[in-house]
Amino acid sequence: MFLKKYKPKTPSLRFKKDIYKMSPFIKKNNLFYMKYKSKSGKSKYGTSILRTRSHNRFNKYISINLNRSTTTNLALITSLNYINKSSCFIGLIKYSDNSLSYIKLSNGLFIGNFTKTIDRPINFSFNFKNILGCFMILNLAPKYCVFSNIISINDKNSKYAKSAGTYLSIIKKIKEHNIFILKLPTGKKKYFSGFSKATIGRNSNFLNKFIVIGKAGINRWKGFKPVVRGVAMNPVDHPHGGRTKTNQPEMSPWGWITKKNK
């Protein structure tokens, strides 16, 4: 996977950069594809709730198995895929008991690699490719290890290090209380229990931050409408409009104070 540049045949392709998806290796499995109804920023009564949302063309999503603790069998990556809802690459894996599921891939994994859920302590004396992308508990991890998609005890899904190229690193381990201090992608430090689960390795598609969409129409396909500044409106349309904004607090189009408690 690499960054692809386009020839400027049209104005929208002049600055466009995208990830080359390697379409010959992508094979879809329709068992995991689901459709959802796009509400286009409206309620069930048809009234608009979000004025910056519109119809989403990409109305399919794939069910991804983030919590792989149920099966400890060896799994083989059979195909790659990419969906617009997730910035990471996902892979279809086949377990030794012939069950299938989609997972988020770690950086460095490709078709033909093996993954599994580890239930015993490991160290880096083994080949690193054998443990890359494996699912495990923090207690079994070596000292200098990098994680992604961590799931705490009280949660069912991951909340930290989910996007492309992000990771968590171990700073300190407190053995008496079974607590790990991890460094988040934002730079903050947070406490996690030793029974938290995570995936070994950094998230794939780390070149995602260099993507240039090229034209505003692509964001419209994803369901985002352009946002007009309130200062640029008339007084009828917004409290900030008509060159009347001096020292009054920030307001919404309906006159609610928005930044009072921030």
- Residue runs with pLDDT of under 50 for 5 or more positions: none
Q: Output mean pLDDT.
A: 84
Q: How many domains is the backbone divided into?
A: 2
How many distinct beta strands?
A: 14
Major beta sheet, strand line-up: 9-14-10-11-12-13
Percent of residues in helical segments?
under 10%
Gross CATH architecture of the largest domain: Roll
Question: What amount of the residues lies in strands?
Answer: 15-25%
Q: Using only CA atoms, what is the Rg?
A: 23 Å
The first-level CATH class name of the largest domain: Mainly Beta
Organism: Tetrahymena rostrata
Family: Belongs to the universal ribosomal protein uL2 family.
Domain Large ribosomal subunit protein uL2 C-terminal: 130-257
Protein name: Ribosomal protein L2
Explain how this protein is built:
The chain is an all-beta fold. The protein folds into two domains: about 5-210, SH3 type barrels, CATH 2.30.30.30; about 235-260, no CATH class. The chain contains one helix and 14 strands; from the N terminus they run ββββββββββββββα. Strands 9-14-10-11-12-13 form a six-stranded antiparallel beta sheet, with no helix packed on it. The chain has a four-stranded antiparallel beta sheet with strand order 7-6-5-8, with no helix packed on it. β6 (about 90-95) and β7 (about 100-105) form a beta hairpin. The chain is globular. The relative contact order is 0.15. The mean pLDDT is about 85.
Features:
262 residues; mainly beta; SH3 type barrels; 6-stranded antiparallel beta sheet; 4-stranded antiparallel beta sheet; 14 strands; 2% helix
